[in-house]
Automatic annotation (TrEMBL):
Signal peptide: none annotated. This is Methyltransferase type 11 domain-containing protein. The lineage of its organism: Bacteria, Pseudomonadati, Pseudomonadota, Alphaproteobacteria, Hyphomicrobiales. InterPro entries: Methyltransf_11, SAM-dependent_MTases_sf. It comes from Rhizobium dioscoreae. Transmembrane segments: none annotated.
Length: 258
């Protein structure tokens, strides 16, 4: 089990380092948010675990946020509740305290996935939502061509969909979440039709997988992608993506109802 970093980050990524400027690139996308809103149903009280800077937290419900990283807690906007310093594996709440619970883009960083999911189930009366990526579908992205090492890291970090479903139990539904062309939540696949954005170091830094590969991988990625954008190679191979309204990649919403 990993220890906590200086800023409190409790998973495998140090957000005291990579979290700076995170919200410049990672904003909640309305299309993705609608999937979460619908799955929450009529829940009035919602727990957000690994809440980060508050992406996808509903503003029309009573939300309790839990986030171990001080850097991420500091980037939460003023209209959202102050996040509690804590981890998924040790939720400081009584059984069945919340109508619903959610975890977005976070389970792959937990030090003990099964315990964290069991804790979410314990404190929740209704649905538990997990927004994550299917590790078997990551190679659908053109990023695999240019940075296979980074995609391999992601594949090792993201837990299997079946593992999450089994740990949560109950009636489980797994929904594909298509990514819109102008997605404002800048995870890797969000730039499927805007490759130039991935030349920005900040855009890569906002995706934790890049912090797990050698710097030379990023340097090669920028050099090769920049070359292929300049000479038209990228567009000859992937240019149709520039006008494709949605991309069904690896993004999935797991909804576990008791």
């Amino acid at each position: 089990m990993q220890g906590r970093y200086q800023d409190g980050s409790a998973g495998d990524a140090n957000y005291g380092v990579i979290g700076s400027g995170y919200t410049n690139y990672r904003q909640p996308d309305p299309h993705i948010a609608e999937f979460i809103r619908a799955a929450l149903g009529d829940a009035k009280t919602v727990l957000n675990v690994g809440a980060g800077a508050g992406s996808y937290e509903p503003v029309d419900r009573q939300v309790t946020a839990v986030e171990p990283s001080a850097s991420m807690r500091a980037q939460r906007p003023a209209h959202l509740p102050v996040a509690i310093d804590g981890t998924a594996e040790h939720l400081p709440f009584a059984d069945r305290s919340f109508d619903a619970a959610m975890a977005t883009f976070t389970v792959h960083q937990w030090s003990d996935l099964d315990r964290g999911l069991a804790e979410m189930r314990r404190v929740t009366r209704g649905p538990v939502l997990v927004l994550s990526c299917d590790p078997h579908l990551l190679e659908r992205s053109w990023l695999h061509t240019y940075a296979p090492e980074m995609i391999a890291v992601e594949g090792r970090r993201y837990p299997e969909m079946d593992r999450i479903a089994t740990a949560l139990g109950g009636n489980v539904e797994i929904k594909a979440v298509p990514i819109p062309l102008n997605c404002v939540d800048g995870f890797g696949e969000a730039y499927y039709g805007r490759p130039e954005r991935m030349l920005d170091p900040g855009a890569r830094l906002a995706n934790s997988a890049w912090s797990f590969v050698d710097a030379s991988v990023g340097e090669r990625f920028v050099a090769e992608l920049g070359r292929d954008l300049t000479d038209g190679s990228w567009d000859r191979r992937y240019g149709a993506l520039r006008t494709q309204p949605f991309f069904e990649g690896s993004l999935r919403l797991i909804i576990a109802r008791p």
